[in-house]
Task: inverse folding
């Protein structure tokens, strides 16, 4: 969750009276699914399905930004900014130069930006701007796998997929803006258009896979890097989906080829090319020390606890909840998605009371008589309940200076026990001590050499993670369910 002037991305700006009016179902969807970034992703999240504005950094110059500059800023704002690591940036820049030289258009120029996000994602703009998250880089196990990702994204530019998707997304945005929200026929037409976009994207993915494997192979890299990284992403997605921490995984499966299908296609492409280098040792040396998971600057999750050192507060989710920190909000739910929670930060006008803001129209169907002034962790607060079948909501606004922490809990079952758990969760909010804020450090990847006495279980036990250490270790190191480690192997573990 962002802590700069934009606060929490799309939710940062004060919602107008009609911002969520008539959108009670969308509120539930936001709680359960989160907010995906619009754009042109091609590996994990589809970015052509959603439109809308986001808060941009304030400009200090009068010159208007180009569309590419605006998109670049929006991407940085949505993905935690650029991740700065001179060694890793130089490694990727050299890799891109090598791929370009072997591509069908060596005259084109590309620039790669590492995004400071734990998400597993990569995408390209028509301008040749390539983006890859540190989450995806950390999941890779050799240079050939990252080469496969970047070559795939270059292929989207070479085949003009990025430009085509941008044009199609713009048309969808125009249709959405012009549509009458009460016109169900128009809404149906828009939905069909989005489905057509998703179907077209599947064809693009296969074409880009084939072009990308060829580029990587001609660059001297192992063409089997593509099926390996696809398999790793499939295992990672399954792991996160099983833990309930990635409720958006269904968006990937609904708009892209199923992972086994893409792996089979990538394997078929790879077999048509000669063997190449994996360049594993150099790659692992480059990512040794890479930040893993959330950057504490934007807040981070430890089990059921969310900690934000920069804003100086923490809270604990109800028992059984899994939390995920995104650029827009903190999302949480139990397995199956019910109940769920969302926390974001807004800054209402200074003269607006909490009760007035609660009734400002951003949430409907507040139950009569449910509004209650209270406190949470020493902060002034106001709470109320709302209904929208089959959901009911416990809304709590907590004021900390000029900012309001907006908790929204949702459940399909309304019982005193569930409501008590919601209230206790909000009541757990408190200020961090200076020592707690100073000691908040990110988790990092550490590359270690397997010793004769080491096993997968022993290495996984060294991971500074609270749950599913063995499964996470296997996913992180590209190991299948029965794969073992050998003395002398280099593997990644997560340390504090």
Result:
């Amino acid at each position: 969750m962002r802590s700069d002037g934009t606060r929490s991305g799309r939710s940062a700006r004060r919602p107008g009276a009609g911002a969520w009016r008539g959108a009670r179902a969308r509120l539930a969807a936001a709680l359960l699914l989160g907010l995906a970034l619009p754009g042109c992703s091609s590996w994990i999240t589809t970015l052509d399905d959603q439109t809308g504005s986001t808060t941009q950094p304030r400009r200090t110059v009068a010159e208007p930004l180009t569309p590419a500059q605006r998109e670049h800023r929006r991407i940085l704002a949505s993905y935690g900014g650029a991740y700065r690591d001179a060694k890793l940036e130089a490694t990727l820049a050299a890799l891109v130069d090598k791929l370009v030289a072997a591509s069908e258009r060596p005259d084109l120029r590309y620039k790669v930006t590492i995004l400071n996000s734990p998400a597993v994602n990569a995408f390209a703009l028509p301008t040749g701007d390539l983006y890859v998250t540190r989450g995806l880089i950390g999941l890779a196990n050799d240079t050939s796998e990252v080469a496969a990702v970047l070559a795939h994204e270059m292929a989207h530019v070479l085949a003009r997929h990025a430009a085509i998707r941008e044009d199609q997304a713009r048309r969808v945005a125009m249709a959405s803006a012009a549509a009458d929200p009460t016109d169900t026929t128009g809404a149906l037409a828009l939905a069909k258009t989005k489905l057509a976009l998703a179907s077209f994207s599947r064809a693009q993915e296969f074409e880009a896979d084939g072009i990308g494997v060829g580029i990587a192979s001609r660059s001297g890299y192992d063409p089997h890097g593509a099926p390996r990284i696809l398999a790793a992403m499939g295992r990672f997605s399954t792991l996160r989906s099983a833990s309930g921490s990635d409720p958006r995984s269904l968006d990937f499966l609904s708009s892209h080829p199923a992972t086994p299908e893409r792996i089979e296609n990538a394997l078929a492409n790879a077999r048509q090319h000669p063997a190449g280098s994996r360049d594993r040792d150099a790659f692992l040396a480059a990512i040794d020390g890479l930040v893993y998971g959330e950057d504490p600057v934007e807040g981070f999750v430890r089990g059921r606890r969310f900690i934000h050192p920069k804003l100086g507060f923490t809270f604990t989710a109800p028992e059984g909840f899994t939390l995920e920190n995104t650029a827009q909000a903190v999302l949480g739910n139990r397995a199956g998605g019910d109940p769920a929670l969302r926390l974001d930060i807004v800054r209402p006008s200074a003269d607006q009371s909490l009760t007035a803001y609660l009734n400002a129209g951003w949430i409907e169907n507040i139950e009569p008589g449910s509004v209650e002034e209270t406190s949470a962790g020493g902060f002034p607060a106001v709470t109320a309940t709302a209904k929208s079948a089959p959901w009911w909501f416990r809304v709590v606004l907590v004021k900390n200076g000029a900012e309001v922490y907006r908790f929204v809990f949702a459940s399909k079952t309304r019982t005193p026990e569930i409501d008590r758990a919601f209230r206790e969760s909000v009541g757990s909010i408190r200020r961090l001590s200076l020592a707690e804020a100073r000691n908040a450090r990110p988790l990092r990847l550490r590359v270690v050499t397997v010793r004769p006495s080491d096993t997968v279980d022993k290495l996984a036990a060294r991971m500074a993670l609270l749950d599913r250490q063995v499964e996470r270790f296997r996913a992180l190191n590209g190991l299948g369910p029965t794969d073992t480690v050998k003395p002398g192997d280099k593997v990644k573990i997560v340390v504090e």
